[in-house]
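Open question from group meeting: does this chain pack into something compact, or does most of it stay loose? Before anyone orders reagents, we agreed to write out a predicted structure and look at it together. Recording both the input and the output here so the notebook holds the full record.
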Amino acid sequence: GGRIVLSAWPPDGALQEISGAAAGMVKAALGVPEGPPQFGWHDLDALSALFAPHGLRVELAERSVEFTGPSVEHYLDEQASTHPMAVSGFAVLQRHGRADELRGRLREILEAANEDPGAFRLTSPYVVATVRADD
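Structure tokens returned:
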């Protein structure tokens, strides 16, 4: 009678571009090889293939969330100083002399995706997957 509820970002869009740029630069700085392809947590077919053999069915609901700030620069500053992955990633890149390079790349991505020329707004889609036992 229980359920599993999870959320996932789709593999495209500004947030994924930011994540990919940051992860790629940190991996390169640390000499970490690329890993296997990511699982499609956002994809109904992939989730169904994972859960169906266990008698579970998956439903997906598409949602979106807005990220806002007074400016792109303010949003970037806030994320760089409070988001745990950003804090640790920038620390690694600072030691390797590449933090400013990443910051510039992230600024470019955010400016291109900004929906509010007078401030900052980014609407990002995501999915909520609910997994339940077959009736």
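Observations to bring back to the group:
Residues 1 and 23 are 38 Å apart (CA to CA).
The longest strand covers residues 56-69.
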